[in-house]
Write a structure and sequence with these properties.
Blueprint: H1 2-16, E1 33-40, H2 44-59, E2 65-71, H3 77-89, E3 94-97, H4 106-114, E4 118-122, H5 128-134, E5 139-142, H6 145-157, E6 165-170, H7 176-192, E7 195-201, H8 206-219, E8 223-228, H9 231-243, E9 251-253, H10 262-266, E10 272-275, H11 278-295, E11 302-303, E12 307-310
Parallel strand pairs: 1-2, 1-3, 3-4, 4-5, 5-11, 6-7, 6-8, 8-9
Antiparallel strand pairs: 10-12
Helix pairs in contact: 2-11, 6-7, 8-9
């Protein structure tokens, strides 16, 4: 009997000394790794997006890990494909991506999804036909770029007269958001009775847009406005307008509401832009990814706000 009591006492003692269950390891199902894959971090829009994502993760550090990745320039598609593959190799449970091209990233994202990675598409929508053909399913989180550009265009048109000549400097031509912004600008110019005399690509880049704008101003001396599909290009276009001595005579519009555009809005060198809240856009995408990982079924699309900003 004494021996049984001793055994029971030892068992109770050992049981009471058992360590608590280990905390989930980084990258585990309880604390998944989410990769945010963006376009050029040299673009203030994506730098702001990254900052917002990091602040969200810091406030929810117990919920997930964050891996922030971005390419050097807007057209480096091969590097963005490499970043997707890098995220998978580093154990990402989800990839939240602003694709540099609406079609070129589809195969890499499909391969990631086949390995069990959740894909959430933000900012620039993936091409629906290409995704369908590849068997890729990804929720889209972002604004209505066409409607946002249309409203920016109408704000600029309020400074013009029907029949005035305008030109559009679009982004990368294979990017869905660039296509939608061009279409929105065209909608607004048609509605306001303006004459679109040229559409050329600035590939989202300031220097490229500066050269395009300079050429347009020379080719079309009666030009009254340049509608640019992002603020980097609007800054380049405004510099070309100033160099031609036409500040105030040629209006400029942009899109994104980056910090660098604010002085140009304040002094009238840029008439209008659109704020799609870069600091929140990635956060919304991350939340969609975490919801999918938590619930075990895909989250749906989520429309986000876009607001016109003028002086």
């Amino acid at each position: 009997m004494r021996r049984l009591v001793l055994v029971a006492a030892l068992a109770a003692l050992l049981g009471g000394c058992q360590p608590s269950p280990p905390k989930p390891a980084p990258g585990s199902a309880a604390r998944p790794k989410v990769a945010l894959v963006m376009k050029s971090l040299a673009n203030d829009f994506f730098a702001t997006m990254a900052k917002g994502a990091r602040e969200h993760q810091a406030a929810h550090a117990a919920d997930y890990e964050l891996l922030v990745l971005g390419i050097k320039n807007e057209t480096d598609l091969a590097e963005q494909v490499n970043l997707v593959e890098q995220a998978v190799a580093q154990g990402a449970a989800a990839i939240v991506i602003a694709p540099a091209d609406s079609k070129a990233l589809v195969p890499a994202l499909r391969r990631a999804q086949q390995q069990g990675v959740v894909i959430v598409n933000i900012d620039n929508r993936l091409d629906a036909d290409a995704a369908r053909a590849a068997g890729l399913s990804a929720a889209f989180v972002g604004p209505d770029n066409r409607d946002g550009a249309r409203r920016v265009g109408l704000a600029l048109a309020a400074r013009l007269h029907p029949g005035d000549e305008v030109a559009i400097i679009e982004g990368v031509t294979t990017a869905f958001n660039g296509q939608q912004r061009r279409a929105g600008f065209e909608d607004a110019m048609q509605s306001a009775g303006m004459k679109v005399v040229a559409v050329q690509s600035g590939e989202w880049e300031m220097d490229k847009a500066n050269g395009v704008a300079a050429n347009l101003l020379t080719a079309h001396p009666g030009l009254k406005a340049l509608l640019c599909a992002n603020d980097n290009m609007a800054i380049g276009a405004a510099a070309a307008v100033a160099a031609a001595g036409k500040t105030g005579a040629v209006q400029v519009a942009g899109f994104d509401a980056i910090a660098a555009i604010r002085p140009l809005l304040a002094d009238g060198r840029v008439a209008a832009t659109a704020d799609q809240h870069a600091d929140q856009l990635a956060v919304f995408g991350i939340e969609q990814a975490l919801a999918t990982l938590r619930d075990g079924h895909p989250a749906g699309d989520r429309a986000t706000a876009v607001d016109v900003v003028t002086r």
